[in-house]
Amino acid sequence: MKTKFIIILTTISFMASSCKKELYQNPITSKDISKFFTNQTEAEEYINAVYGNLQSTGLYGLYLPAFTEIPSDNTFDQVPSNDNGNYGQLDQFTTIASNDIIETSWRDSYQAIQKSNVVLNRIDNITYTDPAQKQSRKGEMLFIRSLLYFNLVRLYGDVPLVTSETTDPNKLFGLGRQPSAKVYDQIKADLTAAIGFLPDAPAQPGRVIKTAAEALLGKVYLTLKDYPNAKTQLLTVVTSGKHTLLGKVQDVFAVGNENNKEIIFAVQFASGVNGNSEGSIMFQQFSPSATVSGAKGHNLPTLSLYNLYTANDQRKNVYVTLASTGAPFNSKLSAPPGNVITDGPSDFVVLRYADVILMLAEIENELGNAAPAAGYLNTIRNRAGLTNTAAASQADLRDAIALERRLELVGEGHRWFDLLRTGTAVTVMNQWFKDNNILITIDQHNLLAPVPQSQVNTDPAIKQNPGY
To answer: What whole-number distance in Å separates Cα of residue 299 and Cα of residue 76?
Structure first.
């Protein structure tokens, strides 16, 4: 049984944590941060708590995977009125600023950013028995902070930028939202520094390593259309030899094969640990109605997406499957063992080598290099049992790569960001609504989520996005 991070968190303080999946450790004491973080043991506990924040509801525990896919043509909400319409609003582009997904994703992101800042502010004053481990922890926190800001800036646009430990929240009032360009500059700086600190291999499964920072930085450059720098970073991941495509698609997301060589970074979950508190609720929430106990039908793959898989595509019924009701569901998420349906065992994959290969295909195509672009694309197609692409022109290759990203990465929270990055969100979604006889039309204002109403109400300097 592999190592996992076992985290027990409270709102203001945090509890001691363990790194063994097999170890059940109930809370013994809570600790005041003002009297904590004085030695290596305490620092390690707090750093594990930062990883634990990634499991939170607003991040990779539930909301973020839906937030980053359900507005797209990849997934939909089966019963839009469920859960106060929170998912349905995203699906139908009727999102209001008090939507719980909007509020919680923002809040949980900034709570994790604050914890990262605490570590980065204090760790230089802590003596570590192994200086390399200390450097690694700095890189891990820089990576997590940059990942969170990268999500925030793509979802909300301009956002508050805080890079130091906040000891007096009152000092942050009146600062407002910082321009996206400034946020991206900070993300690039953090990831560049992280690459210099991080190890080539993890001391424990689930920890951030150098290739994760390189892959994420490559994605950042790609998002900014800086193709040469994106290519440099992603090729570094390829030439590192640390990752590869697995031979069989059914092995990529198998619970018994997590943290394999295709996985670059994943948020860790485990069933049957700490009173069933370390599992994921996504299997239940993202299952079609009437298929499992408490299923909500949130974030289900669309039937049109399922039908894009050809009969000889080995990913069909491995990545996306039809339930007995005929509704597609994401079969990358494994069912929990036993009767605790909310204790799912599947890690959530944030960065994967297949994504790196497809990003390189996109980069080469945008640079006008059709042959290597097709070569990268065919690597993914061939693994799925498909023949080489027939696309040859830049426009055709662009469409073929976009399609392959949908088929390969469905359920991993990429499609909405892909549409935003390529500037095709309005056109693609309006055509999709038209093709499916759905009376929805979107425009540019729908491309950013509303800033949580609680933030606007609390600080007048934080202005709402247009159209909300």
So the answer is: 5
Q: How far apart are the first and last CA of the chain?
A: 48
Q: Is the pLDDT of residue 332 over 60?
A: yes
Six-digit token string for 22? 């097999």
Between CA 87 and CA 90 the distance in angstroms is 5
* Residue 441 C-alpha from the chain's centroid: 27
- CA-to-CA distance for 59 and 53, rounded, in angstroms? 8
Burial of 192 (0-12, 13-18, 19+ CB in 10 A): middle
Closest by CA position to 313, among listed 324, 325, 305: 305
How many Å separate Cα 458 from the centre of its chain?
Answer: 28
> What are 455-464's pLDDT values in tens digits?
999 999 999 9
Instruction: Give the residue with greater pLDDT, 26 vs 33.
Output: 33
| Bridge partners, 76 (sequence order) | 300
* 458: Cβ contacts below 8 Å, ≥ 6 apart: none
Cα four-point dihedral sign 76, 79, 82, 86: positive
Distance of CA 414 to the CA centre of its chain: 8
Span 172-199, pLDDT tens digits: 788 899 999 999 999 999 999 999 999 9
For residue 408, the Cα-to-chain-centroid distance in whole angstroms is 15
Task: Quote the DSSP letter at residue 328.
Answer: E
Helix, strand, coil % in the chain, rounded to nearest 5: 45, 5, 45
How far apart (Å, rounded) are the C-alpha atoms in residues 76 and 182? 33
For the cut 80, the answer to whether the pLDDT of residue 417 exceeds it is yes
Q: How many CB atoms lie within 10 A of CB 341?
A: 18
Give the C-alpha separation, 217 to 452, whole Å: 27
The runs of H, that is alpha helices, within 171-315 are: 180-197, 210-223, 227-239, 249-252, 282-285, 303-306
Count of other CB atoms within 10 angstroms of residue 371: 8
What pLDDT does 174 receive?
86
DSSP structure string for 293-325 = TT---TTEEPHHHHTTS-TT-TTBTTTEEE-TT
**Three-state helix/strand/coil letters over 50-71:** HHHHCCCCCCCCCHHHHHCCCC
For residues 400 and 16, give the distance between their C-alpha atoms in angstroms, rounded to a whole number. 49
Give the pairing of strands 320-322 and 348-352: unpaired
User: Which among 271, 290, 192 is positioned nearest to 236, based on CA atoms?
Assistant: 192
Full-model pTM: 0.93
Phi, psi at 337, each rounded to 5°: -75, 150
Q: Does residue 95 contact residue 102 with C-beta atoms inside 8 Å?
A: yes
Positive or negative torsion for Cα 9, 15, 21, 26: negative
Residue-by-residue DSSP string for 146-172: HHHHHHHHHHHSSB----S--S-GGGG
DSSP one-letter code for 125? G
